[in-house]
Amino acid sequence: MDYITAKWLHILSSTLLFGTGIGTAYYMICATLTRSPPIVAAVGKNVVTADWLFTATTIVIQPLTGFYLIYLAGIPLTARWISWSIGLYLLAAACWLPVVWLQIKMQRLAAEARDSNTHLPASYWRYFRLWIALGIPAFFALVVVFYLMVAKPV
Questions:
Q1: Are the C-beta atoms of 50 and 103 separated by less than 8 Å?
Q2: Which end of the chain is more exposed for a tag (fewer CB within 10 A), N or C?
Q3: Euclidean distance between the first and final Cα of the chain, in Å?
Q4: At what angle are helices 80-115 and 56-73 packed, to 10 degrees?
Q5: pTM of the predicted model as reported, rounded to 2 decimal places
Q6: Is 37 exposed, middle or buried (0-12, 13-18, 19+ CB in 10 A)?
Q7: SS3 state at 78
Q8: CA distance 154 to 149
C-alpha cells in the first residue's frame, strides 16, 4: 500500500473514531438527562452497536496505519511526538474498554427499568458518573493526538 492510501485510511479512521466517540457520548448524555428508561434503553442499544461497529474497528486500524506511515516516512519510533501519540492513544483505549462495558450495563439497567416501569436505579447513575469520568480523559487524549498527528512537532 502506498503512502497516500495509508494516510487517507489513517485520517478517515481517526475521523470515524473521534466522530463516533463524540456522537455517541452526546446522544448517551442527552438520553440519560431525559431520565426516561425507554429512551435511555433505546439510545443505549444504538450507542453500544455504534461503538462495536465503528470504534472497535477504527481502534485497530489506527495503530496499523499509523505504524505503517511511520515506517514509510522513515520516522523513528523514538521521536517525541510519536511517543506521546502512542501513550495518549493507549490512555484513550484504556478508558474506552471500561466505557463499553459500562454502556452495556447502563443499557441493560435502563431496559430493566423500562420493562418494570420504574426509574433508573442508583447503580445506573453510578455507572453514568464513571462513564463520564473515563470519557473526559479519553476525549482530551485524542484531541492532543490529533494535534500531534497534524503538527508533528520536533
A1: no
A2: C
A3: 27
A4: 170
A5: 0.90
A6: buried
A7: coil
A8: 12
Output the tens digit of pLDDT for each of the chain's 154 residues: 999 999 999 999 999 999 999 999 999 999 999 999 999 999 999 999 999 999 999 999 999 999 999 999 999 999 999 999 999 999 999 999 999 999 999 999 999 999 999 999 999 999 999 999 999 999 999 999 999 999 999 8
What's the grid cell of residue 42? Answer: 433505546
Is the C-alpha dihedral spanning 96, 100, 105, 111 positive or negative?
A: positive
The amino acid sitting at 22 is I
All structural domains of the chain with their residue ranges? 3-151
**Coil, helix or strand at residue 119:** coil
Q: How far apart are CA 143 and CA 25, in angstroms?
A: 15
CA-CA-CA-CA torsion sign (109, 111, 113, 115): negative
Rounded CA separation 27/50 (Å): 11
Q: What angle do CA 24, 30, 35 make, to 5 degrees?
A: 125
* Amino acid type, 23: G
